[in-house]
Amino acid sequence: MTYSYDQLAQWDKQYVWHPFTQMKDWLEEEIIIVARGEGVKLYDTEGREYYDAFSSIWVNIHGHNVKELNDAIIDQLGKIAHSSYLGYGNIPATLLARELVEIAPPGLVKVFYSDNGSTAVEVAVKMAFHYWRQCPNPRPEKNKFLTLMNAYHGDTIGAVSVGGIDLYHGTYRDLLFPTIKVAAPYCYRCPFGAKAGQCEKECEQALEKAFAEHAHELAGCVIEPVIQGAAGMITQPPGYVKKVRELCDRYDVLMICDEVATGFGRTGALWAVNHDGVSPDLMAISKGLTGGYMPLAVTLATQKVYDAFYGDYAEMKTFFHGHSYTGNQLGCAVALASLELLKKHNLVTEAARKAGVVKKVLAEFNELPHVGDIRQAGLMVGIELVRDKLTKEPYDWQEKMGIKTCLAARKKGLITRPLGNNIVFMPPLVSNDEQLQEMLEIIKASIIQVTEG
Question: Where are the bilayer-spanning segments (predicted)?
Answer without folding.
Answer: none
